[in-house]
Structure to design on (127 residues):
């Protein structure tokens, strides 16, 4: 199955082993442990932007993630367990983002109150 990335820095982060997972919506639950992952810079269906496959890997694990904008601030839960501040920093770094970028990416405006998705792991790491 293909995963596409919009930023060049994700290519180098995946190749170096720094980015060890990605967070996606996955409404249909199509990702499964053991599936092959074809990592693409850009969307292979949009040839104008010159997409290219840069790595092949395997899905090593799946976890549910919930990022919420609450009156007390933004919270992050993985598999129904609320993460601490240091754990959120680790999660963001392992996804190739800062905490601020993580929040902005998944809660792009004040009206956006909740993101529900899945962490697709490239390693055995779990939260």
């Amino acid at each position: 199955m293909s995963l596409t990335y919009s930023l060049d820095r994700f290519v180098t982060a995946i190749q170096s082993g720094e980015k060890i997972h990605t967070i996606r919506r996955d409404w249909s639950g199509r990702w499964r442990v053991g599936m092959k992952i074809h990592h693409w810079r850009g969307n292979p269906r949009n040839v104008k932007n010159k997409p290219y496959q840069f790595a092949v890997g395997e899905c090593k694990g799946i976890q549910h993630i919930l990022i919420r904008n609450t009156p007390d601030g933004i919270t992050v839960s993985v598999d129904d367990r609320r993460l601490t501040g240091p754990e959120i920093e680790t999660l963001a770094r392992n996804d190739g983002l800062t905490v601020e970028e993580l929040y902005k990416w998944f809660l792009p405006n004040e009206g956006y109150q909740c993101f529900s998705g899945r962490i697709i792991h490239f390693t055995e790491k779990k939260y």
Remarks:
- The CA atoms of residues 99 and 118 lie 17 Å apart.
